[in-house]
């Protein structure tokens, strides 16, 4: 395999104000270059679709730089080395890297990590054994300090991060694990397939009331993927000395203006709660430990994972918009093969 004559990439066409649409993306055709010294040309096979990309579509530097108009988007991808000018890599090697959203990626070999196809199928390294998996692991153990006495609530529980957070909590003997998700089918999936003790459909009634009904002993750990009404409801139902791992706030990402925070914040004081935000990028030093811990459970089926896969680079904007609307169960991916 060597560099093809042309390949496609997805670019940011315009910045959204509120909910993005297909018009915010454009597909462009480019000519991939041959790798220079120390570089790899990678044929991307599968790419990740992530909520964090919504933040990068805004003209604001947060923990990652914003996308630039007219430039290709980025995100995790698995690909096969098409041409290598770097020691230690040869054509055909399977690697994970962060230059997705394009059919071919030219990157420094130092930015590529080889994946072990014996451990799991390649897609898993973008989800349950990739950054979303490490997010669940770090959030639950390092940030929330999970113990076997804990009642745990996970929002976004049918998604890539949430589905693993709930299953890890169960496998580590948490007293009770409650999840929330946006459809009855997802609620069925997380209780019947993933082993959560209880779950509710947040679209069917007030989050606070539904949570209170299931969490009759209160909650000790809240793994927050959603923010907004879910965060308010969790604070209201927390037990004394409860811990909140603030992972994401997807209910807020498409708001054109910043929204007011949760009501009842004095409970942070009266209940002596801890809430701590975290970013997975700060936890990659734990990746090997995570892989050794969680990999065998994925291989022997004790941890289950779902994927929602759209086919073809041109489907990437639809996949992103669909994920924002909750059309995915488990990890949202785009297959480029
Ligand atoms: P998911 O696979 O969970 O996909 C996103 C899901 O969010 C959708 O399927 C949808 O499910 C749900 N959702 C969308 N809008 C709302 C809403 N208004 N209220 C409640 N749920 C909503 O994505 P990820 O697992 O990749 O990410 C989950 C969260 O974790 C996100 O907030 C993300 O930003 C965060 N994250 C944080 C990281 C970190 O380093 N801190 C790293 C990776 C992710 P439903 O049908 O249930 O509504």
From TrEMBL:
Transmembrane segments: none annotated. It comes from Actinopolyspora saharensis. Keywords: Oxidoreductase. This is Enoyl reductase (ER) domain-containing protein. The keyword Oxidoreductase applies. CDD domains: PGDH. Pfam families: ADH_N_2, ADH_zinc_N. One of its GO terms (molecular function) is oxidoreductase activity, acting on the CH-CH group of donors, NAD or NADP as acceptor. Residues 21-334 form the Enoyl reductase (ER) domain. It comes from the Bacteria.
């Amino acid at each position: 395999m060597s560099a093809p004559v042309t390949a496609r990439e997805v670019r940011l066409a315009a910045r959204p104000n509120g909910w993005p649409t297909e018009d915010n993306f454009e597909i462009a055709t480019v000519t991939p270059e041959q790798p220079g010294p120390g570089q790899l040309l990678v044929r991307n096979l599968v790419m990740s679709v992530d909520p964090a990309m919504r933040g990068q579509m805004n003209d604001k530097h947060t923990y990652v730089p914003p996308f630039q108009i007219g430039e290709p988007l980025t995100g995790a991808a698995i690909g096969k080395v098409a041409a290598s000018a770097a020691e230690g890599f040869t054509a055909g090697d399977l690697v994970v890297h962060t230059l997705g959203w394009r059919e071919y990626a030219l990157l420094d070999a130092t930015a590529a990590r080889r994946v072990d196809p014996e451990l799991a199928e390649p897609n898993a390294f973008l989800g349950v054994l990739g950054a979303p998996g490490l997010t669940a692991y770090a959030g639950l153990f390092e940030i929330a300090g999970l113990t076997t006495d804990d009642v745990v609530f996970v929002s976004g529980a049918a998604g890539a991060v949430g589905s693993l957070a709930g299953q890890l909590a169960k496998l580590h003997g948490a007293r009770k694990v409650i999840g929330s998700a946006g459809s009855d089918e997802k609620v069925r999936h997380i209780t019947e397939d993933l082993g959560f003790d209880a779950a509710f459909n947040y679209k069917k009634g007030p989050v606070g009331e539904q949570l209170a009904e299931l969490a009759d002993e209160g909650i000790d750990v809240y793994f927050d993927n959603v923010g907004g009404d879910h965060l308010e409801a969790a604070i209201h139902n927390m037990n004394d000395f409860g811990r909140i791992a603030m992972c994401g706030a997807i209910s807020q990402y498409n708001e054109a203006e910043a929204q007011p925070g949760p009501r009842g914040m004095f409970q942070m004081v009266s209940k002596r709660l801890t809430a701590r935000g975290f970013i997975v990028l700060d936890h990659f030093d734990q990746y090997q430990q995570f892989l050794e811990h969680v990999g065998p459970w994925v291989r022997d089926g004790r941890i289950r994972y779902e994927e929602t896969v759209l086919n073809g680079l041109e489907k990437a904007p639809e996949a992103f918009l669909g994920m924002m609307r909750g059309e995915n169960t488990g990890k949202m991916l785009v297959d480029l093969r």
